[in-house]
Amino acid sequence: MKRYKDIAGDGGSNIVGQVQVQQARLRERLSGVRSIVAIVSGKGGVGKSSLTANLANCFARDGQRVGVLDADLNGPTMAKMLGVRGRTLAMGAAGVTPPESALGVKVMSMDLLLPSDDTPLAWEAPTQDEAHTWRGSMEANALREFLADTAWGVLDLLLLDLPPGTDRLATVTSLVPSLAGTVIVTIPSDVSHLVVRKSITVAAQARAPVLGLVENMAGLFPGPAGADLAREAGIPFLGSVPFDRELALAADRGEAFVTAAPERASARALAQVARAVQESLATTRA
Ligand SMILES: Nc1ncnc2c1ncn2[C@@H]1O[C@H](COP(=O)(O)OP(=O)(O)O)[C@@H](O)[C@H]1O
Ligand SMILES: [Mg+2]
After folding, report:
1. Spatial CA neighbour of 162 closest among 241, 244, 69, 283
2. Is 66 helix (H, G, I), strand (E, B) or coil?
3. pLDDT of residue 27
4. DSSP state, residue 249
5. Alpha helices, DSSP H only, in the chain?
6. Ion ligand 2 nearby residues (CB, 5 A)
7. Residue 21 Cα, ligand 1 centroid: separation in angstroms?
8. What 3-state DSSP class applies to 22?
9. What sign does the CA torsion over 213, 32, 205, 171 have?
10. What is the spatial distance between Cα 110 and Cα 142, in angstroms, rounded to a whole number?
């Protein structure tokens, strides 16, 4: 069997040409999107996805046109958290129409493309050893397709929910024409700060401004303050969201927590973070 390494050039399939066409379509598709913001953390389980969903709902509640791209291809949660899981995608000449949450947030996720059983996303490669090599470029290809084939329409804000690991940020910045900024998430533990400190360094080197740091799950256990980490790193502190089981339960139900329980301390904190993100965006744009 001939393997990709053995092929001189690209075997006549003009991959470079195909990618260029797609990249041009992607730019065209995203031309109606004012700002693209990525939610990142080197650490998993700190609440990147919860924050993405809740921020999207805060912005939508305030009358903004918002989209969310679930860039976590192997652990997609956006469809679930925004209550659109199992919705069928409408394919039209203008591209794939993303389903909308109750508050009108447009959602695109691998979860909407995969069969609804628990089959994980598998990367096809001649051997499992090579699957590893393929994964990175396949991820970039899948994300490029998502961005190029989704009919986002006009959006004030497109939020990208990234998988853990800041290496993924480079993939995203290479794909989108311009990233308005990154929001970094941590929880108040030494372990999380250790990893997130590195994420801040990586994000600071990316071709996008760091909008700031969010502390999530505050009060869950005694730990170092997110505000201190932000100050030491010289980036804005966007706020602290308390640990609140109601927030987790709402996510599991696919409910918009910030409108279902707006009076709760955690919902108010999320609204404050949304305002801080908006202000940081305005500052970096100026
Ligand atoms: N502030 C919070 N209070 C309580 N539970 C939370 C909070 N933030 C996130 N969670 C819960 O923690 C789990 C992990 O969050 P998730 O957003 O999936 O993290 P990540 O995307 O960083 O892996 C989820 O079950 C989520 O509902
Ligand atoms: Mg996640």
Report:
1. 69
2. strand
3. 87
4. H
5. 15-29, 48-61, 78-81, 128-149, 167-175, 190-205, 226-233, 245-253, 257-260, 265-285
6. 48-49
7. 38
8. helix
9. positive
10. 9
Q: How far apart are the first and last CA of the chain?
A: 56
Q: Find the residues whose C-beta lies inside 6 A of ligand 1.
A: 41, 44-50, 77, 216-217, 241, 243-245, 247-248, 251, 266
CA angle, corner 246, sides to 243 and 248, nearest 5?
Answer: 70
Long-range contacts of 137-146 (CB under 8 A, 24+ apart): 139/73, 139/168, 139/171, 140/171, 140/174, 140/175, 142/73, 142/110, 143/69, 143/71, 143/73, 143/171, 143/172, 143/175, 144/19, 144/22, 144/23, 144/26, 144/175, 145/22, 146/69, 146/108
Beta-bridge partners for 181 = 37
Which residues have C-beta within 8 Å of that of residue 273, sequence separation ≥ 6? 51, 55, 58, 214, 238, 239, 241
Instruction: Say if strands 90-92 and 95-97 run parallel, antiparallel, or are unpaired.
Output: antiparallel
Task: Report yes or no: 163 and 42 within 8 Å, Cβ to Cβ.
Answer: no
pLDDT tens-digit profile of 142-177?
Answer: 888 888 889 999 999 999 999 998 778 888 888 888
Band the pLDDT of 9: cuts 50, 70, 90.
Answer: low
Shortest-distance ligand to the CA of residue 242: 1
Measured from the Cα of 77, ligand 1's closest atom is 18
Mutate to test the pocket of ligand 1, among 46, 48, 49, 50 (most ligand atoms within 8 A of CB): 50
Say yes or no to pLDDT of 6 above 80: no
Ligand 1 centre to CA of 8 (Å) is 47
pLDDT value, residue 147: 87
Kindly report, residue by residue over 181-197, the tens digit of the pLDDT. Answer: 999 999 999 999 999 99
Q: How far is the CA of 6 from the centre of ligand 1 (A)?
A: 45
